[in-house]
Specification:
- The complex is a heterodimer of chains A (483) and B (476).
- Chain A is α+β, with helices and mostly antiparallel strands and 483 residues long.
- In chain A, strands 1, 5, 6, 7, 10, 11, 12, 13 and 14 form a nine-stranded mixed β-sheet that branches. Chain A has a three-stranded antiparallel β-sheet with strand order 4-3-15, with no helix packed on it.
- In chain A, helix 10 runs antiparallel to helix 11 and helix 13 packs across helix 16.
- Chain A is elongated.
- The mean pLDDT of chain A is 92.
- Chain B is α/β, with parallel strands linked by helices.
- Chain B has one domain: Amidase signature (AS) domain (Amidase signature (AS) enzymes), CATH 3.90.1300.10.
- Chain B is built from 15 helices and eleven strands.
- An eleven-stranded mixed β-sheet of chain B has the order 1-3-2-4-6-5-10-11-9-7-8, with helices on both faces.
- In chain B, helix 8 links the parallel strand 7 and strand 8.
- The model of chain B has no long low-confidence stretch (mean pLDDT 96).
- Classes of the chains: A alpha+beta (483), B alpha/beta (476).
- Chains A and B meet through loops of A and helix 9 of B.
Chain lengths: 483, 476
């Protein structure tokens, strides 16, 4: 371990390349299905994905539209002119011998992502982002003298987002990656399912003691925010150690061993390919008209930053805001309530229910956000019942849990579960009289100004009313009777 | 005289039941059999062709529609993916390959009732001007067996002149339809780039590859083009055909209303004097017929060949990388590991010319050389396009020889690739620019045919075919 003192001497510089899988129905250049999760190998392929003789790629317009959306999500406008290029290398999971990407003229140039780390706002600039087709998957069964190739993923549309080297810590990198994840989901560009590898990150990192950037390593194929953080921490330590020992950092591609929590050498610069990039003559240049660009711009949904501000306006605590931003169905529901003219206090109450009670149900796999019964009318009613003391806050939570899991109106659930609160003074007065008679000691204590005793008496009233008495009404009545 | 009448007539007779598709197929297959010694055909498609013929005849009997090319047999260059036979592109690396889908051009022809009866020989992967680069055999010129038929669609051109079928399909990347048409005395049509889908045709150089017919007459070429020209969802570079289609209309506009430019650069040094005289004689006939003919110069034309031999190998090296022995075609049986498999498969599977082009292409695309070669060549290409556009502001068509010579002896240039490349000197510019062109027979020298080339602006295929049919009549 490097001491904090030594570490302070070094500046870490990080740039991130992020591959986002676009949520199109079909592949980037063929009509084969794009979603092959859990599918048998080589069942989502066409003659194009197989690189058959005479097979020609035909650009999927849906992918172009998502690329345009991504541009707006990254704070810029798509390029009116972009082109596809061939990147050549031989590997069995690359059937044509070249990957189709955008090397010379990408669809996105520039852009920026604002992140907040330790209360400080920071801007990470985007260098460029380009559309490209994914390769297939090679599988090397252990102990066998053969490898297997699954081309289901071959031709899947990706957007590779290349940041400027604007980050300087693992935390910044993690927050940036998370922000990209949110923006791609909000913009509808990607399912952004980390489990299925819908987003993969390559981290370029170098350390330096002065203004000149050091030699960088590139750690490829990180597929979780945690692994980004851990890989950066490991690489930072490794490179500083080399510096401290007077050794040099080698420019190379490294992999991440999640089990050992360390990076390892994959390929040095000398072994790097000459990809012989060439404009793909099979695909005409992608020319976007102002009308097409404006059409996509006009359909852009709200992005996480805007949504976050709306939630902040509800005076929620920051972790609740985070939950609502990250759990899109929950956040969207809160926004719908806001738009429906629901009282701010009620919306806030619902937001708190969602981020605590409902979130707990989701965390315990009782429900998912997608299946939760989020009904505007029902939630409005429950919030009103609570603020008008028709149910206690405890009762409201019990109703809520039934309501999101099974559905139904809160009034009916309250009735069925006997959770409606009694606020009628005459009815409660009888109980108060009875309780005071049964607890003369406590009554005496209240008269003598002991505040605790009143709580005890309210508790007895709640017990006697089977929880249905409105506690604040009960308290008022105790005071009235004893004065 | 040919045993085949005009394509439209054959189809009409089949539609009426006056001719049996089955007999036409048998007639074609017999002619192929009788002329085996010309090595024009790599494989016949007998079973499928006969089945399709019987089906067409049955449909005629049932009074069902059979299509505009009903029962017309044809031959496809072996770089078209077809059912019923292997598709090899005359290369060892694709030997044994059975296509899982058919090329769009074949599909469109079949949909109109045409019947593919055989696959024609070519220079392997269409790399060449003589068919001598075929990994299997060299096709012989129908007029003189000691001479080449031209290439790369040499098998297609020879098969038409040998009367094996009313028409053949070829591909033209730098002259591969027009040159063999000229050498064999056929009509060879190279359409505007993108007019015919390349889907299902083994790619050579994607930015210049086009598909077109080889026929005995301009009229037949127009009939075939009319069927195969279409925008195709499987080829993003295809364009919408002209609204009126391509079949010749009975009344053609007067020759005198058109201005034709003779390309100065194609009529100067380097051209065989007899070929030049033959073209000049044709020009005189056209003038006598009332055509307005002027001389035009396109100063960058002499750069076209060099430009082509950078861009074409670059694309070839890329397009051939899929032949790696991992999924289909030849895979070296002795390979012990992946690198071996790539190296041995490609070393043995590709012939000398394919390897030469892969090496040149790989070189010009390498980092550090890209700007000096590939990018430069693309700039020259843009300049050529500009010069053609400008020239077409002053003339309606361009005219010149198709090749600077007539068919040469087999083996003459076999060991000198540069000499071989020079045979394309009058055809490659058209491909780089993407304009349509046609080679039509312009008489013979010492019994060997001479080809006359007519060139039109992009998307003026209909006008070009109209002009060519008039020229064909005048110079015959």
């Amino acid at each position: 371990m490097i001491s904090a003192e030594i570490r302070k001497k070094y500046t870490v510089t990080i740039g991130i390349e992020c591959h986002v899988q676009l949520k199109t129905k079909t592949k980037l250049f063929s009509a084969a299905g794009n979603d092959s999760r859990e599918a048998a190998p080589n069942t989502h392929i066409s003659h194009i994905d197989l690189g058959m003789p005479g097979a020609l790629p035909v650009l999927n317009e849906a992918a172009v539209e998502l690329g345009m959306k991504a541009a707006f999500a990254l704070g810029t406008t798509p390029q009116k002119f972009s082109e596809f290029d061939r990147k050549h290398y031989f590997y069995p999971d690359l059937p044509t011998g070249y990957q189709i990407t955008q090397f010379y003229h990408p669809i996105i140039i520039g852009g920026e992502v604002r992140i907040e780390v330790d209360g400080q706002e920071k801007i990470v600039k985007i260098h460029e982002a380009h559309l490209e087709a994914d390769a297939g998957k090679s599988i090397h069964p252990p102990g066998k003298d053969y490898s297997l190739v699954d081309l289901n993923r071959a031709g899947t549309p990706l957007l590779e987002i290349v940041s400027e080297p604007d980050m300087h810590s693992a935390e910044e990198a993690k927050v940036y990656a998370k922000e990209l994840y949110l923006r791609m989901r909000y913009a509808g560009v990607s399912e952004a399912n980390m489990y299925y590898g819908n987003m993969r990150f390559d981290v370029n990192l170098s350390v330096s003691t002065n203004d000149v950037l050091g030699t960088r390593s590139e750690t490829k194929n990180l597929n979780s925010f945690r692994s980004i953080e851990r890989a950066i921490e490991f690489e930072t330590e490794r490179q500083i150690e080399l510096f401290e020992k007077g050794e040099k950092v080698v420019q190379e591609t490294r992999g991440w061993d999640d089990a050992k929590q360390r990076t390892f050498t994959q390929r040095s610069k000398e072994e790097a390919h000459d990809y012989r990039y060439m404009p793909d003559p099979d695909i005409p240049p992608l020319v976007l008209s102002d009308e097409m660009i404006e059409k996509v711009r006009s359909t852009m949904p709200a992005l996480p930053g805007e949504v976050r501000e709306k939630f902040m306006g509800l005076q929620l605590d920051s972790s609740s805001v985070d939950t609502l931003v990250e759990e899109m169905p929950a956040g969207r529901f809160v926004l719908t309530l806001l738009d429906s003219g629901c009282k701010t206090a009620d919306v806030k109450r619902v937001a708190n229910w969602l981020t605590s009670e409902v979130q707990a149900l989701v965390a315990n796999d009782k429900i998912s956000w997608e299946t939760a019964k989020l009904d505007v009318a029902n939630f409005k009613q429950l919030a009103e019942m609570t603020s008008s003391n028709k149910v206690s806050s405890t009762g409201a939570k019990a109703i809520l849990i039934d309501m999101v899991q099974i559905g139904g109106s809160p009034a009916e659930i309250a009735e069925a579960k006997n959770l409606l609160q009694v606020s009628d003074e005459d009815e409660i007065n009888d109980i108060v009289k009875q309780v005071l008679a049964e607890n003369p000691k406590a009554a005496e204590d209240v008269r003598n100004g002991e505040a605790k005793a009143i709580g005890f008496l309210v508790g007895q009233i709640m017990k006697a009313s089977k929880g249905q008495a409105n506690p604040s009404v009960a308290q008022d009545l105790i005071k009235k009777q004893l004065n | 005289m040919s045993q085949w009448s005009a394509i439209a007539d054959i189809a009409e007779k089949v539609q009426k039941g006056e001719l049996k598709a089955e007999n036409l197929v048998a007639q074609a297959l017999k002619t192929i059999e009788d002329n085996q010694d010309f090595s024009a055909v790599i494989a016949t498609i007998e079973d499928r062709a006969k089945e399709r013929a019987i089906e067409i005849d049955n449909r005629v009997e049932r009074n069902e529609a059979v299509g505009r090319l009903a029962g017309v047999p044809f031959i496809a260059k072996d770089n078209f993916l077809t059912f019923g036979s292997e598709t090899t592109a005359a290369s060892n690396i694709l030997k044994g390959f059975e296509a899982p889908y058919q090329s769009t051009a074949i599909q469109r022809l079949e949909a109109e009732g045409a019947i593919c009866v055989a696959k024609a020989n070519l220079d392997a992967f269409a790399h060449g001007s003589s068919t001598e680069n075929s990994d299997f055999m060299t096709t012989k010129n129908p007029h003189d067996k000691t001479k080449v038929p031209g290439g790369s669609s040499g098998g297609s051109a020879a098969s038409v002149i040998l009367d094996m079928a009313p028409f053949a399909l070829g591909t033209d990347t730098g002259g591969s339809i027009r040159l063999p048409a000229a050498f064999c005395g056929a009509v060879g049509y190279k359409p505007t780039y993108g007019l015919v889908s390349r889907s299902g045709v083994v790619a050579m150089a994607s930015s210049t590859d086009v598909i077109g017919p080889l026929t005995r007459t301009v009229e037949d070429a127009a009939v075939v083009l009319d069927v195969i020209a279409a925008k195709d969802a499987l080829d993003g570079t295809t364009i919408e055909p002209e609204g009126d289609g391509y079949a010749l209309s009975p009344e053609l506009s007067a020759l005198s209303s058109k201005k034709i430019g003779v390309i100065k650069e194609y009529m100067s040094d380097g051209i065989d004097v007899k070929v030049k005289a033959q073209i000049e004689a044709a020009i005189t006939k056209l003038k006598d017929a009332g055509a307005e003919i002027v001389e035009v110069s396109l100063p960058s034309l002499p750069l076209a060949l060099a430009c082509y031999y950078i861009i074409c190998p670059a694309e070839v090296s890329s397009n051939l990388s899929r032949y790696d022995g991992q999924r289909y075609g030849f895979s070296h049986p002795e390979a012990k590991n992946l690198d071996d498999s790539y190296n041995l498969t490609r070393s043995e599977g590709f012939g000398t010319e394919a390897k030469r082009r892969i090496m040149i292409g790989t070189y010009v695309l390498s980092s550090g050389y890209y700007d000096a070669y590939y990018k430069k060549a693309q700039q020259v290409r843009t300049k050529l396009i500009d010069e053609f556009n400008k020239t077409f502001e002053t003339v309606d068509f361009l005219l010149g020889p198709t090749a600077p010579m007539t068919a040469f002896e087999i083996g003459k240039h076999a060991n000198d690739p540069l000499e071989m490349y020079l045979t394309d000197i009058m055809t490659v510019a058209v491909n780089l620019v993407g304009v349509p062109a046609i080679s039509i027979p312009a008489g013979k020298i010492d019994n060997m045919p001479v080809g006359l080339q007519l060139i039109a602006p992009q998307h003026k295929d209909r006008d070009l075919l109209g002009l060519a049919s008039q020229v064909e009549r005048i110079i015959a």
